[in-house]
From TrEMBL, chain A:
Ranges of biased composition (kind: Basic and acidic residues): 126-141
Species in which this protein is naturally found: Plakobranchus ocellatus
EC number: 2.3.2.31
Active site feature: 467
Gene3D superfamilies: 1.20.120.1750, 2.20.25.20, Phosphatidylinositol 3-kinase Catalytic Subunit, Chain A, domain 1
UniProt similarity note: Belongs to the RBR family. Parkin subfamily.
Catalytic activity: [E2 ubiquitin-conjugating enzyme]-S-ubiquitinyl-L-cysteine + [acceptor protein]-L-lysine = [E2 ubiquitin-conjugating enzyme]-L-cysteine + [acceptor protein]-N(6)-ubiquitinyl-L-lysine
Domain Ubiquitin-like: residue ranges: 24-91
Name the record gives this protein: E3 ubiquitin-protein ligase parkin
InterPro entries: BRcat_RBR_parkin (IPR047534), E3_UB_ligase_RBR (IPR031127), IBR_dom (IPR002867), Parkin (IPR003977), Parkin-like_IBR (IPR054694), Parkin_Znf-RING (IPR041565), Rcat_RBR_parkin (IPR047536), RING-HC_RBR_parkin (IPR047535)
Compartments where located: Cytoplasm, Cytosol; Mitochondrion
MF terms in GO: ubiquitin protein ligase activity; zinc ion binding
UniProtKB/TrEMBL annotation, chain B:
Enzyme class label: transferase
Keyword Secreted: no
Organism classification: Eukaryota, Metazoa, Spiralia, Lophotrochozoa, Mollusca
Domain of life: Eukaryota
Protein name (database record): N-terminal E2 ubiquitin-conjugating enzyme
Classification via PANTHER family: UBIQUITIN-CONJUGATING ENZYME E2 (PTHR24067)
Protein source organism: Plakobranchus ocellatus
UBC core domain: residues covered: 3-151
Length: 498, 151
């Protein structure tokens, strides 16, 4: 909010409301550069708010329109019936009927006073088409239902905001408020907060980015808020003929400046309104992750964290062609993969980094690539499809053999050449001393001694106990530790346990 | 309380309050963290195991229920069954690769009772001798080949 922002001392008194917990601070935004801070009680009506804003902005209250969730706020409704929280930004515009209004009407409408800050670019032409209050959209808690129950609620809210609800239908505004404020429907991973946060659904005009955009209906599902939304509406800006809204979600915390791209939608996370038990711990958590399987199994966020961490450690994630490196419902339901991999941020940053590495490796391997075997490298490489076995890493320059994944060698695979210990300067170092002091060679020989290569994918595998029936954690090949060949019934009969 | 403890508390409550037929938790055996249980089971009527009593030992890691419990027959009476080794190890896929956190102590017990009930002939697994002689103490360290689901 630029220099034009005026903090409104005394407005609460004007509105005759107490400064208690019901007082909220709203930002009334006319244009990108013109907004006013207003303290009001949630118990006042929209009309009262308009009067306060009109006084502050030097406009007629009748000329002001306020927009919430793509819908005009109705004069007789109380602010609390919309579930507006503090620090909500409302967009405002000045015309009573955008389509019917002519340029003259606008002038007469707003010409009474010319109090608009000149930073409004539209004011520089002297006509002041939209000197106006485009009040806001803070869609959080409005619109929203993403399943049938939510859909009904969304509808209910919209009825309210379109003014169809008579005073009788709003018999318990307090309940409505509690209900609305208690239930955020959308959750994002906020990169600025570095955590999961409830989110507000917002919209702007897809054409000009104007926040005062009126939609014909509220969204009822994820498709409705996607870029291919079928919801249309009208922009209140005179210059803009766009009929397409652009929905987006933002973190509910206040973040200054540009927040574009800082919130990732976590579509599987929801408030546990139905009080369903977690499939793992049996607790009824306040927030749950709902798997996209038929029964809609839920886990609490803690158990999801644990589930994905255990699976990560055991490399049980699957590379899914559409959803990426992901996990299914822990109950093993069909078509239940997590569809947005940012949910795995719940594992914490460190694990998420490992997750990304594993995912990238899996992608490389599944697409015919290899990983650079040099210690500490692991770069994904796509060798040329030719005769040569030499694969050179572009990152660390290590040269490896495409077939046995060891350091590049001449001759047949399986006879790994040991690094020749060359003593260019004779300092009296015996071979034995060199052997003991050789960092790299020691770990290499340790790996040689303790591992065997999977007969299918050649990954070096360590056996940590148990039977001789190995299952490759990378390619799932079942093989025999003794024969280093695929597992057979003979292996089981003769040396299952060695 | 860890999620493993919370989950096991709930399972214990459900099983002591409303135990399934032929299955009862031996509450004297429980440790404070609930990481080990003993469950008494009884052979179902009209089966080869009618009237016989067995004990199942459960061990849970802190990763339960994402990690399967270790389950084996313990005590003096080990059922003679083609999928039960004489050391108590059980070859049952839900105990390893088909485990899911949606399963529970109760569902495992019922599966084992049902596995016993469907048996047509009391005999040891064909590879019992070598298995028992060489296997690891922990049945979860055995990679089974689940060949036959009929018994």
């Amino acid at each position: 909010m630029a220099s034009n922002t005026v903090s409104n001392h005394g407005l609460a008194a004007t509105l005759d409301c107490d400064r208690h917990e019901n007082t909220i601070c709203l930002f009334i935004r006319f244009t990108a550069h013109t907004s006013y801070a207003v303290d009001v009680s949630v118990d006042v009506s929209v009309r009262d708010l308009k009067v306060a804003v009109a006084e502050k902005a030097g406009l007629s209250a009748d000329s002001i329109n306020l927009v919430l969730a793509g819908q005009k706020l109705q004069d007789t409704d109380l602010l609390k019936s919309y579930g507006i929280g503090s620090h909500t930004v409302l967009h405002a515009f000045c015309l009573t009927d955008q389509r019917a209004a002519t340029g003259d009407a606008r002038r007469s409408d707003t010409g009474v006073k010319t109090l608009h800050p000149v930073s409004d670019p539209s004011a520089t032409n002297g006509r002041r088409e939209r000197k106006d209050l485009e009040i806001t959209d803070d869609l959080h808690n409005l619109h929203g239902g993403l399943d049938s129950e939510l859909g009904n609620r969304g509808q209910h809210n919209l009825e309210r905001s379109t003014g169809d609800s008579t005073p009788q239908t709003r018999h318990s505004p307090n309940n409505a408020l509690n209900r609305l404020q208690g239930y955020y429907r959308f959750f994002v991973y906020c990169k600025l907060c570095d955590g999961i946060r409830p989110a507000k659904l917002r919209l702007v005009c897809a054409g000009c980015g104007n926040g005062a955009f009126l939609v014909d209906r509220g969204p009822a599902n994820w498709d409705d808020i996607s870029t291919s939304t079928t919801i249309s509406g009208q922009c209140t800006s005179k210059q803009c003929q766009c009929t397409q809204p652009k929905f987006y979600l933002r973190c509910c915390e206040r973040h200054e400046g540009d927040v574009d791209g800082t919130a990732v939608v976590l579509k599987h996370i929801n408030t546990n309104r139905r009080r369903v038990e977690c499939i793992a711990c049996g607790d009824i958590a306040s927030h749950v992750l709902i798997f996209p399987c038929g029964p809609g199994h839920v886990t609490c966020l803690n158990c999801f964290r644990q589930y994905s961490s255990v699976c990560l450690n055991e490399r049980r994630f699957t590379e899914h062609e559409r959803h990426g490196y992901t996990l299914p419902c822990p109950a093993g339901c069909q078509d239940s993969y997590i569809e947005e991999t940012h949910h795995f941020l719940l594992m914490g940053k460190e694990n998420y980094e490992r997750y990304k590495n594993f995912g990238a490796e899996e992608f490389v391997l599944q697409n015919g690539g290899v990983l650079c075997p040099a210690p500490g490298c692991g770069m994904g490489l796509f060798p040329e499809d030719d005769e040569t076995r030499l694969v050179k890493c572009g990152e660390c320059q290590f040269e490896s053999c495409k077939d046995c994944r060891a350091e590049y060698h001449t001759g047949s695979c399986g006879q790994m050449e040991h690094l020749a210990s060359s003593h260019a300067i004779d300092m009296g170092i015996t071979d034995e001393m060199a052997e003991r002091a050789c960092w790299e060679q020691q770990s290499l020989s340790l790996i040689e001694e303790t591992t065997k290569q999977c007969p299918n994918c050649q990954i070096k595998t360590e056996r940590s106990g148990g039977c001789m029936h190995m299952v490759c954690s990378r390619c799932e090949c079942e093989w025999c530790w003794i024969c280093v060949q695929p597992w057979t019934r003979d292996c089981m009969a003769q040396h299952w346990f060695g | 309380m860890t999620s493993m403890e919370k989950r096991l508390q709930k399972e214990l409550q459900a099983m002591t309050k409303d135990p399934p037929a032929g299955v009862s938790v031996n509450t004297n055996s429980l440790t404070s963290t609930l990481s080990e249980w003993i469950v008494d089971i009884e052979g179902a009527p009209n089966t080869l195991y009618e009237g016989e009593r067995f004990q199942l030992g459960f061990k849970f890691t802190s990763r339960y229920p994402f990690d399967s419990p270790q389950v084996m027959f313990i005590g003096p009476n080990i059922p003679v069954h083609p999928h039960v080794y004489s050391n108590g190890h059980i070859c049952l896929s839900i105990l390893t690769e088909d485990w899911s956190p949606a399963l529970s102590v109760q569902s495992v017990c019922l599966s084992i009772v049902s596995m016993l009930s469907s048996c047509k002939e009391k005999k040891l697994p064909p590879d019992n001798a070598i298995y028992v002689r060489t296997c690891s103490k922990d049945p979860k360290k055995t990679r089974w080949w689940y060949h036959d689901n009929s018994v």
